[in-house]
Design a protein that fits this description.
The complex is a heterodimer. Chain A is mainly beta. Chain A is about 0% helix and about 50% strand. Chain B is built from no helices and 11 strands. In chain B, strands 2, 4, 5, 6, 9, 10 and 11 form a 7-stranded mixed beta sheet that branches. In chain B, strands 1-3-8-7 form a 4-stranded antiparallel beta sheet, with no helix packed on it. The chains are: A mainly beta, B mainly beta.
Chain lengths: ~110, ~110
């Protein structure tokens, strides 16, 4: 069965500093990996995805993520955090080779402070 | 303006009542999903449908029912058998066929049992 782990419930970072939100996964074969962001009382917005190819994926709002197959990780990063980046971030995985069941991690609350 | 519309945004239910949450999409997506979100537990899959007139149970289907009579609509009924229905419910849709496509989410319905 596929699963996703987000080991940190909350990440705090100062504005202007780099940020990392961690994600590890467990799935047979090569996974499809996704990051979503959620603002309070809203739905999820898609940020970026890894399907194949370059391990560094660039997405919306200056976010990027690095796929590391040996460590089964897909950490979300941003070189310079903004206060407006404060939100709840979800990592998700889909099984390779067909099927649309999307499995989410428990989420990481990012707080960017001045 | 394409997207997914969930209604109502807030819903109150008395114990023992069934309630139905609406989800409509005009993205021409075949696949649709219902997730439940609770604090600290991430998103858990209730039901999903890959095509009209077909749907499958997710990880927490007990106490819920769905129908998929039209491509655009995937209503969720929370029955009196669901013992702890207070939660934030999210509907999503995605393109069929290839599982590397991202899902699009509605703005959610917050259900409270009173």
């Amino acid at each position: 069965a596929q699963s996703v782990a987000q080991p940190e419930d909350q990440v705090n970072v100062a504005e202007g500093n780099p940020l990392t939100v961690k994600c590890t996964y467990s799935v047979s074969g090569n996974p499809y990996l996704f990051w979503y962001v959620q603002y309070p009382n809203r739905g999820l917005q898609f940020l970026l995805k890894y399907i194949t190819g370059d391990n560094l994926v660039k997405g919306s709002y200056g976010f990027e993520a690095e796929f590391n197959k040996s460590q089964t990780s897909f950490h979300l990063k941003k070189p310079s955090a903004l206060v407006s980046d404060s939100a709840l971030y979800f990592c998700a995985v889909k099984p390779p080779g067909g099927g649309n069941k999307l499995t989410f991690g428990t989420g990481t609350q990012l707080k960017v402070e001045l | 303006d394409g997207g997914i519309t969930q209604s109502p945004k807030y819903l109150f239910r008395k114990e023992g009542q069934n309630v139905t949450l609406s989800c409509e999409q005009n993205l021409n997506h075949d696949a649709m999903y219902w997730y439940r979100q609770d604090p600290g537990q991430g998103l858990r899959l209730i039901y999903y449908s890959q095509i009209v007139n077909d749907f499958q149970k997710g990880d927490i289907a007990e106490g819920y029912s769905v129908s998929r009579e039209k491509k655009e609509s995937f209503p969720l009924t929370v029955t009196s058998a669901q013992k702890n229905p207070t939660a934030f419910y999210l509907c999503a849709s995605s393109s069929p066929g290839q599982s590397n496509t991202e899902a699009f989410f509605g703005q959610g319905t917050r259900l409270t049992v009173v």
